[in-house]
């Protein structure tokens, strides 16, 4: 089994957020959140770009993000 790469504890959640990349905007579900990043899943058929702005008011997130891993429809992102 691979060693855990996270340096911060993650908080499980199931709240909505909005991704903006260029002129594209769509909704995602935040699966978990830490101080450094999150796991997000797109709602619908959209694909998550490699870099984007994530806004999730319920989680107090408004950050530029970069995708660091992808598994199926889920993506792990790092806050920049």
Radius of gyration: 12 Å
Write down the CATH class. Mainly Beta
Uncertain spans, ≥5 residues at pLDDT below 50? Answer: none
SSE arrangement, N to C? EEEEEE
Structural class of the secondary structure composition? mainly beta
The order of strands across the largest sheet is 1-2-3-6-5-4
Q: What's the CATH topology label?
A: Thrombin, subunit H
Give the domain tally: 1
Number of helices: 0
The outline comes out as: globular
Distance between the termini: 28 Å
Largest sheet: 6 strands, antiparallel, barrel
Mean pLDDT across all amino acids = 90
Using the 3D structure, state the CATH architecture.
Beta Barrel
Query: Could you give the count of β-strands?
Result: 6
Residue share in helix: under 10%
Strand content: over 45%
Short descriptors:
mainly beta; single chain; 80 residues; 0% helix; six-stranded antiparallel β-barrel; Thrombin, subunit H; globular
Topology at a glance:
Layout lengths: L10 E11 L2 E10 L3 E6 L8 E6 L4 E11 L2 E6 L1
Antiparallel strand pairs: 1-2, 1-4, 2-3, 3-6, 4-5, 5-6
Note down, in words, how this protein is organized.
This protein is mainly beta and 80 residues long. The chain is 0% helix and 62% strand. It has one domain: Thrombin, subunit H (Beta Barrel). The protein contains no helices and 6 strands. Strands 1-2-3-6-5-4 form a 6-stranded antiparallel beta barrel. It is globular, with a radius of gyration of 12 Å. The termini are far apart.
